[in-house]
Amino acid sequence: MRALVLSGGTGSRLRPITYTSAKQLVPIANKPILFYGLESIARCGIREVGVVVGDTAAEVMSSLGDGSSFGLNITYIPQDKPKGLAHAVLIAKTFLGDDDFVMYLGDNFILQGIEDFVEGFQRSAGNINAQILLAKVSDPERFGVAVLGDDGSVLRLVEKPKVPPSDLALVGVYIFDREIHRAVNAIKPSARDELEITDAIDWLIDDGLRVKSSIVEGYWKDLGEPEALLEGNRLALELLSGEILGDVSIDSSVQGRVNIEAGAKVIGSVIRGPVIVGANAKVINSFIGPYTSIGPNCVVENSEIDYSIILKDAVVKDVGRLEGSIVGKGATVLRRESKPSALRLIVGDNSRVELS
Question: Do residue 10 and residue 132 come from a single domain?
Fold first, then answer.
């Protein structure tokens, strides 16, 4: 079995963070989202992985290299622009051959991984042609949704329906055998000029092939929006065991599960886990509350931060309290004491600032 990982797309819902970074490489608990998926694929025993890349190809390739750090062998497959998930399968045919494969959307976060899902398909080898992963959602109109038979087989799929026929959304993880290649060659572009994977799966069903479903029982999220990113960060931090490799001054207090990475310094501060403080970061005279990730080389001074993500090289200084916030790479958030008293902001496109 092989894997096809999609790591293109523009990440428009996460702007301005994704103006300078691939959305799949935005970190939760100081680890890029994409890494969680690749680690799970490796645990499945899969070794050959094709990564579909677009405008952010250079950054993705620099981060993943040849895949050996994950125990994988990565082949990069360029896509000139996003043309739909089925188009990704179409252009990956040479890499995939006739092998069964997992297709994994790189901005998905599945807390328990996909190992059980892959094992289920392998046990059913020869009896099913495709298997899709589903999750119950409160807003199914935002997703492709599935209608199931009593045995869990998929009867039909509907892409972002105005009146959803179910609350079961496509998660963004699929397993296919070679029949999917006939399907993606047979379908036509949708109204948005993309080759939809939902149309390809419907083609399989209409051709009498068997498509089965599995439902995610744990946490799943498409981490394409700030609120989802913060929630994914919270859940990833819950997995911390707690490890202090950096320096903590005698007048600091570290409570609960806290990872302080090598080279980091905590001085005169309180850190209440779960929290991760990245390599060579400095936390000075500050309070870091639960579910906060402080990236490598950050400086947090005279500030309080709770339930937030501070990306690498950022500076937060003399800020009363930040909560539910995402601070981008190399950004600076500080308080000026000079008169006259006024807010002074430099805010990029598609940013959001909330003032209390």
Answer: yes
Q: Do 213 and 288 have their domain in common?
A: no
Question: Which residues have CB under 8 Å from 74's CB, separation 6+?
Answer: 49, 50, 51, 64, 65, 66, 67
CATH of the domain at 276: 2.160.10.10
Contact status, residue 243 vs residue 259, Cβ threshold 8 Å: yes
In angstroms, the first-to-last Cα distance of the chain is 53
Spatial distance between the Cα atoms of 246 and 249, rounded to a whole number of angstroms = 10
Query: Do residue 53 and residue 167 come from a single domain?
Result: yes
Please tell me the predicted confidence (pLDDT) of residue 351.
59
Domain that holds residue 48: 2-236
* Whole-number CA gyration radius for the chain: 22
- Mean of the pLDDT values across residues 229-244? 89
Question: What is the 8-class DSSP label of residue 56?
Answer: T
Residue range 170-184, pLDDT digits in tens: 888 999 999 999 999
- Bridge partners (DSSP) of residue 244 are 260
* Domain limit, last residue, from 185, 218, 236: 236
Domain count, the chain: 2
pTM, two decimals, is: 0.87
CATH number at residue 37: 3.90.550.10
Q: What is the pLDDT of residues 237-259, one digit of tens each?
A: 998 888 999 999 999 999 999 99
**Distance (Å, whole) CA 237 – CA 258:** 9
279 touches 262 (CB < 8 A): yes
